[in-house]
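Why do we care about 3D structure at all? Because function follows from shape, and shape follows, mostly, from sequence. That is the central idea of this module. The next example makes it concrete: a single protein chain, its amino acid sequence, and then its structure expressed as tokens.
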Amino acid sequence: MRRVVRLAGGLTLGLALTACTADPPRGQPPERPSQTAAETAAPASGTPAPATSSPTATPSSTPGSGSRLSAEQLEAVLAAVSEAESLNAQIIADAELRALEEEGARRAEDIVVTPEECNVYAESSTEGLSAEASRAAMTFAGESSLQPDTVSLSGLASKEAARTQLRAGRDQLDACSEFTMEVSNQEISTTVSEVDVDTAADEDLALRTTAQVPGTIQESITVRAVVGSTVVDVLVGGSPDPAADAARAERLTDLVVAELRAR
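And the structure:
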């Protein structure tokens, strides 16, 4: 019971560990991503990845063929979207992303999650996916004052491997639609629900996460989409307009999908 909560867990953990830092001004690049960015940028393979080096990936000019894109190709996709939309995003390379996750795993050791099966931080195993995948992410200022928006890409070995990630998320949503986290004597209540989106991807799954910390309620929209053997994860921080947040996440997903299919 790991993959769905992984999509939501980064937001919740980030609230607890980073004390809700403010967005950078528009037109300036975000600072180095907090645990929130590191967690949400990771593929939903179950737990933070312990790998310390970038994987060897098989390049492909056609994502729809099922061949895995290299980390460098994924970075180029994100850079193209950032440039086209003037996002001024910070691109996070594969090796840096893994290092951030490793740091986040150490910081999460004392977290208690209820029910226990929703604890995405309890195991050190990555179920083999993270080490095999080629990855890249970007983070940039969005509409939330509490966190940046994040887009991450994971190149897997096959179309079926990518679709398995999304199907597992659907299967496990019911099991972990509500959970609590206790961090430094602070309890965070989290709810996760599915949101309707209509993206250009082969398949997609969108979730709304609401995290309640004493004195703070934060929402986010996460879209997981599949294009060939590539998994796209888009997270946008919540604003006063939930419908606009979902539309923004959908549009970001479609921009990435279009760029992937153009290569």
